[in-house]
Amino acid sequence: TTIPFRLNQNQALLTFEDEEVAQRLIKMGKHTVNLDNKIADVSVKPFTLEMGIKFELHVTISGKKISVSEVPELSIPEEWVRDKLELNFYKSEQGGGGEVENVSYDKQSRTAVITFLRPGAANAFVSCTKYPFFVNGRCYRLSVSPNTDVHLEKFQLYCGISKKTILLKGIQETEDDEESVQDMIEIHFQKPSNGGGEIENIKYVSKGVTWVCFE
C-alpha cells in the first residue's frame, strides 16, 4: 500500500540510493545551499510517515463453481428459477458444464452460484462473460464470472520510516522557478564534498502543499 506524506511550502524531500548518505546528512543537521545568488541555510530532518498497512491477499478460484448475475426477473416461483438454471447449465452448448450438484439463487440481488459435480467443470466458463439463458421461449443473457474465495493473511499495521529519505526545511523563497531551485538543491546534495551522494528521487514545493506517496 502507499503511504501519503504531506510536503509543505518551501520544503523538499530527497531520496538517496544509499541509506548511509541520508543518515550522514541527518547527523550533519545544517547545510548551506547556494541557490543562484542567494545563500540558504537549510536544516535536514528525519521524518516518520503515517501509519501503513501490510497484508497478503489470497484469491482461490473454484474449479467447480461459477457466479451468475443479471438473472432476469421472472413471474415464476424461485424453485422453478433454480430448476431452469440447473437445466440450462447442464445442457451447456459451450462444451463445459455438466451435471449440477447445487444451485444457490438469490432473487433480491438476481444472482446465483452454480456448483458442478465434476471438478474442473467451471474452467470452461472462464472466457465466457455472457451466457444464453432460455426460459419460456425467450433468450436472456446472464453474466458469468469465476467464483472466488478471497481472504487476508499477515495483516500488519506499522509506522513507516524511510531511512534513505531526508526532509529539507527552511528553503528561502527566490524569484527562480520551482524546477530551477530543485535542480540547485539536487546539485548540492549530489556532491560527495557536501556529504551527499547519488539521488534517486527529489521533490521540492515552493507554493502550497503537495502529497508525496511512499510505497
From TrEMBL:
Keywords: Cytoplasm, Immunity, Innate immunity, Nucleus, Secreted
Gene3D superfamilies in the cross-refs: 3.30.70.330
Keyword Cytoplasm: yes
Protein name: NMI protein
GO cellular component: cytoplasm; extracellular space; nucleus
Species of the source: Smutsornis africanus
Gene: Nmi
Residue span(s) of domain NID: 12-101, 112-201
GO biological process, one term: innate immune response
UniProt family annotation: Belongs to the NMI family.
Main localization (coarse): cytoplasm
InterPro entries noted in UniProt: Nmi/IFP35_dom (IPR009909), Nucleotide-bd_a/b_plait_sf (IPR012677)
Subcellular location per the Swiss-Prot or TrEMBL entry: Cytoplasm; Nucleus; Secreted
